[in-house]
């Protein structure tokens, strides 16, 4: 096993915590140091660490690890962590398809993730007109049905796509990822990258009526598959920004999204403009047939693996735009390359890429196990196609989000090591990111808390 160089913080700390990568900001290191941890950050230049590399980092004594979505966190690593005395792990990602949670359960190791949400800091001016006369209720809440707020807060709702408290819309969603999906949508629809290449190649010799003609978004239909936190945020951006109509498919109803579009449609109507509309589709196929733009935001599991395949691509409009900022294997990339070749007016924007090797599907698990070596590879031909915009998995790459993810991952591990309970709502994690006041004494987001029987913290903002 290779021995790697590590940077050590708080050498005398009582718990040994390893981070497999340096992460942005300092708040996360401080959080671990404050919790009495000795922090060892792997400084290897190797981008993706193998299981053997990580075994070497865990060594014979390790209390907790912060890992990355590129790593295979399965039986081998969890049993090694357990053997080394560890009981806390956190992915620095909201998606955890690279983690075999059942293996972690078996070894009693808590698995954290980082659903970073950002407070909506402004009320859109259009919402002001909906504030009931004499009421102090926030205008946004006034336009959203109370039932939607209740649903979002409900314990029984397994998929809470917004974070609210009883009187304020607490800001929602994973805006950073949704913004990149919107950027990919625009880049693909308006051929921004092709046009940029053309300029840089010195090919522009004057305006022409047919030069890089693309698609207008306004008034078109945007389709969302997976209308959770990110899917709903993206939908709102496309509705408010481009007056697009929404069709969505999710296993669950998104009342919040529906009410938002209805309210915005009413506002447009009151201004004499054409209202936007929404529709909940009964299948992914319905979305694919009807939408001009389709953006994929589901989790990756057995139900979404190769959700977009040859057959479903053929159902889409010939000039549609397809965006994927979820996980690569949601699309059969070989089928996509063929489709792009045959349909030059069909465009894609991709932040994530499919596995180079075949996936390991475990029959008895609801999750895919070991989806890690999917990037940096692209399927043959994809990189040469002008109708594909490709970026290297940067959807969450804003400073605020990446620093927040690092802090949440650290607090998941630090909280577990200190014996703290888990936070009552993993969608409301902003109190953990406030640099000016101490973080709540809880683990922000532990995905296997229930199975491990971990105690849940009371729903107060500071403890
Ligand atoms: N590209 C990036 O950098 C990046 C960043 C963040 C998240 N992600 C990916 O995006 C995913 C979604 O993140 P989120 O925070 O919005 O999660 P979320 O849990 O809030 O939303 C996922 C939604 O997918 C829905 N879903 C599950 N199975 C489905 C199916 N078969 N068909 C349709 N919908 C289905 C769920 O009901 C849920 O509403 C993550 O799991 C992660 O893989 C990628
Ligand atoms: O799942 C996540 O959080 C992302 O893919 C990281 O950007």
Automatic annotation (TrEMBL):
InterPro entries: D-isomer_2-hydroxyacid_DH, D-isomer_2_OHA_DH_cat_dom, D-isomer_DH_CS1, D-isomer_DH_NAD-bd, NAD(P)-bd_dom_sf. Its main location: other. Residues 30-116 form the D-isomer specific 2-hydroxyacid dehydrogenase catalytic domain. Keywords: Glycolate pathway, NAD, Oxidoreductase, Peroxisome. Pathway: Photosynthesis; photorespiration; 3-phospho-D-glycerate from glycine: step 3/4. Its EC number is 1.1.1.29. It is found in: Peroxisome. It comes from the Eukaryota. It catalyses: (R)-glycerate + NAD(+) = 3-hydroxypyruvate + NADH + H(+). GO terms for cellular component: cytosol; peroxisome. Belongs to the D-isomer specific 2-hydroxyacid dehydrogenase family. This is glycerate dehydrogenase. It comes from Marchantia polymorpha subsp. ruderalis. The lineage of its organism: Eukaryota, Viridiplantae, Streptophyta, Embryophyta, Marchantiophyta.
């Amino acid at each position: 096993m290779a021995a790697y160089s590590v940077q050590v913080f708080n050498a005398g700390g009582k718990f040994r915590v390893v981070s497999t990568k340096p992460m942005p900001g300092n708040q996360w290191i401080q959080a671990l140091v404050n919790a009495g941890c000795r922090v060892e950050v792997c400084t290897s230049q190797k981008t993706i660490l193998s299981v053997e590399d990580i075994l070497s980092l865990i060594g014979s004594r390790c209390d907790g690890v912060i890992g990355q979505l590129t790593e295979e966190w399965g039986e081998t690593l969890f049993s090694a962590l357990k053997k080394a005395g560890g009981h806390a792990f956190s992915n620095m990602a909201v998606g955890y398809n690279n983690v075999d949670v059942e293996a972690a359960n078996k070894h009693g190791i808590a698995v954290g993730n980082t659903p970073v949400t950002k407070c909506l800091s402004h009320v859109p001016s259009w919402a002001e007109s909906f504030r009931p006369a004499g009421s102090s209720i926030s205008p946004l809440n006034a336009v959203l049905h109370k039932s939607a707020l209740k649903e979002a807060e409900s314990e029984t709702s397994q998929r809470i796509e917004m974070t609210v408290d009883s009187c304020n819309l607490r800001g929602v969603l994973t805006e950073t990822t949704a913004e990149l999906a919107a950027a990919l949508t625009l880049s693909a629809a308006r051929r921004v990258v092709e046009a940029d290449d053309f300029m840089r190649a010195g090919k522009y010799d004057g305006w022409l009526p047919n030069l890089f003609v693309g698609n207008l978004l306004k008034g078109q239909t945007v389709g969302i598959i997976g209308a959770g936190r990110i899917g709903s945020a993206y939908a709102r951006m496309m509705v408010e920004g481009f007056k697009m109509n929404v069709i969505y498919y999710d296993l669950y109803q998104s009342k919040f999204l529906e009410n938002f579009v209805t309210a915005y449609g009413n506002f447009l109507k009151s201004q004499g403009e054409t209202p936007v509309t929404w529709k909940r589709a009964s299948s992914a196929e319905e979305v694919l047939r009807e939408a001009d733009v389709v953006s994929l935001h589901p989790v990756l599991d057995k139900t979404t693996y190769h959700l977009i395949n040859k057959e479903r691509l053929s159902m889409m409009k010939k000039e549609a735009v397809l965006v994927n900022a979820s996980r690569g294997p949601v699309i059969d990339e070989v089928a996509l390359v063929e489709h792009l070749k045959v349909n030059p007016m069909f465009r894609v924007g991709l932040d994530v890429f499919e596995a180079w090797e075949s996936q390991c599907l475990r029959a008895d698990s609801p999750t895919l196990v070991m989806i890690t070596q999917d990037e940096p590879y692209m399927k043959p031909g994809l990189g040469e196609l002008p109708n594909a915009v490709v970026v290297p998995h940067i959807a969450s790459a804003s400073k605020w989000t990446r620093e927040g993810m690092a802090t949440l991952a650290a607090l998941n591990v630090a909280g577990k090591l200190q014996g703290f309970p888990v936070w009552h709502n993993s969608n409301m994690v902003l109190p953990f990111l406030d640099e000016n006041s101490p973080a709540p004494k809880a683990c922000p987001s532990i995905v296997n808390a229930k199975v491990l029987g971990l105690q849940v913290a009371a729903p107060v903002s500071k403890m």
